[in-house]
């Protein structure tokens, strides 16, 4: 099954965060966990997106997050909010 473009974009942004040594370790870990959740086909796409949004929402408030990383997290959330379960 073809992945929606928003999902591909979100995963790419999360990879950038996860691999960026300038980002605190806890945020990199959440980014890596989020990629795993998004790639887990046992759950519906909408559920995966919702789970990741809630994780990212939490770390986006981390005062140690650099501004550019926070911006990327918000970009990921925006991409994921567009994903819905197919009817």
Summarize the structure.
The chain has four helices and no strands. It is an all-alpha fold and 87 residues long. The protein is globular and about 35 Å long.
Instruction: Characterize the largest beta sheet: strand count, sense, and whether it forms a barrel.
Output: none
Could you estimate the helical fraction of the residues in percent? over 70%
Proper CATH architecture: Up-down Bundle
Question: What is the structural class?
Answer: mainly alpha
SSE arrangement, N to C: HHHH
- Summed up, the helix count is 4
Strand content: under 5%
What does this structure look like?
The chain has 87 residues and is mostly helical. It has a single domain, classed as Ta0600-like (de novo design (two linked rop proteins), Up-down Bundle), CATH 1.20.1440.50. It contains 4 helices and no strands. It has helices spanning 5-19, 25-39, 45-60, 67-81. α1 (5-19) runs antiparallel to α4 and α3 (45-60) runs antiparallel to α4. The radius of gyration is 12 Å and the shape is globular.
Question: What is the element layout, followed by pairings?
Answer:
Blueprint: H1 5-19, H2 25-39, H3 45-60, H4 67-81
Search tags:
mainly alpha, de novo design (two linked rop proteins), 4 helices, 70% helix, globular
């Amino acid at each position: 099954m073809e992945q929606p473009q928003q999902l591909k974009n979100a995963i790419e942004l999360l990879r950038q965060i996860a691999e960026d040594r300038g980002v605190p370790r806890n945020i990199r870990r959440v980014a890596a966990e989020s990629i795993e959740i998004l790639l887990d086909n046992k759950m519906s796409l909408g559920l995966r997106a919702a789970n990741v949004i809630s994780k990212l929402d939490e770390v986006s408030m981390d005062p140690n997050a650099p501004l550019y990383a926070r911006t990327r997290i918000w970009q990921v959330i925006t991409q994921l909010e567009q994903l819905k379960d197919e009817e």
